[in-house]
Write a structure and sequence with these properties.
Elements lengths: L2 E7 L9 E9 L2 E11 L4 E2 L4 E2 L6 H24 L6 H8 L8 H14 L3 H17 L12 H13 L5 H20 L29 H8 L6 H15 L5 H5 L6 E2 L2 E5 L6 E5 L2 H10 L22 H26 L9 H10 L5 H8 L4 H5 L3 H16 L2
Antiparallel strand pairs: 1-2, 2-3, 4-5, 6-7, 7-8
């Protein structure tokens, strides 16, 4: 039985524009593929050596994982050859990856968290770990199989989360999304049959409640821009917030990771940390004014613009995550004081900068333009940021009808 196995990058991207890593099993010039479960940008793939390029921030962890997966499947092929089993490439894959009945939901969840840790996705790791803790609190027995997670289990679990744990509907649905994510992966890995899938039409439905994202108005922005009674630390926090707002609600993690080298030709060039998408934005004059306050602390082009990450261990994702989290907490505390000084009753946080940009954009820019700025894959996500514009359109329509 002449069979080969090789790590490849599949050419069909996902909704985020990233490409899946896979193992290609070939026999008699016929191939089948087993997805690894990780996706990267095309520019990070070394096709000659079948590995992730060193320029990828998590290249070492991913390449170690690829080596492990390739070794695993080659051992499986040797075992089949030893038993003189002759089969097609697809049958070989199914035999090697046949359902593992003793792999529990918690085993699978732990593997998922370990993968997030190896990829340096600390924010996602923290969130998913919290969701998993609620599941363990509800189902105290360690041996929870995927087969046990049916519609009745999910309904009872939902009641527990909202009753015993006093969680909101949104948080409850986020935990259900986490379970659905692992269930889908388990189906792909042949751990559970897709016929047992408990989500979807006629089964358990995941439905988030509508929420209103309240941003600041133009008038309120002008007020905080003109404040002159701020301490140095408050002034710095406001600069970071305005920097985020002026750059279309840039996420705080991306703001703090901005380096001077990313600013050239009158534009900011950066890759979004959340979805790895590239963005190039023209530098507004208001940003220039902020940059002038920090240029004196610039030692070289590779320096961070803002100081919060200058002492971070960039090779340690956990340290980087903790420093961003600490900085964000500090900013939000100072922004609360700034709001009081400005006479603003709305909640002012770093994330509100993003909703403020969406709120003020209203009828100034088309919804599609805002979607492009935010790099949302779905227009539905963008609509939430222009909800006030939608309300305005409905209000205008109402007035048009009744004012006769």
């Amino acid at each position: 039985m002449s069979v080969s196995a090789k790590i490849v990058l599949r050419k069909k991207p996902n909704s985020r524009g990233l490409y899946p890593l896979a193992i290609r099993i070939t026999k008699n010039r016929r191939s089948t593929y087993k997805l690894i479960g990780h996706y990267i940008d095309l520019e990070y793939w070394d096709s000659k050596n079948s590995e992730v390029k060193k320029s990828h921030p998590n290249s070492q962890s991913l390449n170690n994982l690829l080596t492990s997966k390739l070794s695993e499947i080659r051992k499986g092929i040797i075992a089949l050859q030893t038993n003189n089993k002759d089969a097609s490439a697809n049958q070989i894959k199914n035999e090697i990856y046949k359902p593992t009945s003793n792999l529990t939901f918690f085993d699978y969840a732990d593997e998922h968290l370990e993968a997030l840790k190896s990829e340096g996705k600390m924010n996602r790791l923290s969130t998913d770990s919290a969701w998993l803790s609620y599941i363990k609190k509800y189902y105290k027995v360690k041996h929870l199989t995927f087969q046990e997670i049916d519609e009745r289990f999910l309904m009872k679990f939902k009641i527990f989360l909202k009753g015993n744990c006093s969680l909101t509907e949104t948080t409850t649905m986020n935990i259900m999304v986490f379970i659905r994510l692992l269930y889908n992966k388990a189906i792909m890995d042949n751990i559970v049959s897709k016929e047992l899938y408990p989500f979807g039409p006629g089964k358990f439905k995941i439905k988030f409640p509508e929420t209103i994202k309240i941003g600041l108005s133009e008038k309120e922005i002008k007020v905080i821009e003109s404040l002159d009674n701020l301490s140095d630390i408050e002034s710095h926090s406001l600069n970071v917030w305005l920097y985020s707002f002026y750059f279309a609600g840039m996420r705080v993690s991306d703001v703090l990771k901005t380096r001077w080298s990313q600013i050239y030709d009158g534009r900011l060039h950066y890759r979004m940390g959340k979805n790895s998408k590239l963005l190039s934005l023209k530098i507004p004059l208001k940003i220039d004014k902020i940059l002038q306050e920090y240029i004196c602390n610039r030692n070289n082009d590779n320096d961070f613009i803002f100081p919060e990450l200058k002492k971070a261990n960039l090779d340690d994702p956990k340290d980087l995550y903790n420093k961003i989290k600490t900085a964000n907490k500090k900013f939000n505390k100072n922004l609360k004081t700034i709001a009081l000084k400005a006479g603003i009753k709305k909640k002012l946080t770093m994330h509100i900068a993003r909703h403020t940009f969406g709120h003020i954009s209203e009828d100034k820019i088309p919804l599609r333009a805002l979607q492009k700025l935010y790099r949302h894959s779905s227009i539905t996500t963008t609509i939430n940021y222009q909800s006030n514009f939608i309300h305005k359109a409905a209000d205008d329509a109402l007035e048009e009808v009744i004012n006769f």
